[in-house]
Specification:
- The protein has one domain.
- It has 2 helices and 8 strands.
- The N and C termini lie far apart (about 40 Å).
């Protein structure tokens, strides 16, 4: 889909720009960013925290797919506590997330930082999709912002 174009010049480089005359709604990103306090009761080992994170990301991928997600800009963030942290990112719903880092010793309190940019999903639905995926996938108590 292209609209009107025009010639443009950068120094000695002349080229033609095409501009979209119509951008479908699915091309608009849905964005959600949040921090949530996490409570592991009883305290969890570092590998258990990572497994909870993996279960959350799998549940979130499934929920986003069911909600009509057509493209992932990114899903990234971290789980940080007193004994270390995990960083994660995901750019495809059908692929395993990249996770780096770890926690030394038991984790009782941590903070989840999350940034989601996806396409094809109603942005107003993202908080509920994320929070439900955390509750169902990770199974760890979380306090989310209002």
């Amino acid at each position: 889909m292209s609209g009107a174009g025009h010639e443009h010049r950068h120094g000695d480089d002349r080229h033609r720009h095409e501009h979209l005359s119509h951008v479908p709604d699915a091309a608009s990103p849905a964005v959600y960013a949040a921090r949530a306090g996490l409570l592991f009761d009883p305290p969890a080992r570092g590998d258990d925290v990572e497994q909870a994170l993996r279960r959350f990301l799998a549940a979130l991928s499934s929920a986003l797919s069911a909600a009509g997600c057509t493209l992932v800009g990114h899903i990234k963030g971290g789980v940080n506590g007193a004994g270390g942290g995990l960083a994660f990112h995901l750019t495809r719903l059908d692929a395993a997330p990249a996770i780096a880092g770890g926690h030394a010793g038991p984790v009782s309190d941590a903070e989840l930082t999350l940034n989601v940019i996806v396409f094809g999903v109603d942005e107003a639905r993202l908080p509920a999709l994320v929070q439900h995926a955390w509750a169902e996938g990770a199974g760890v108590a979380a306090s989310w912002p209002d």
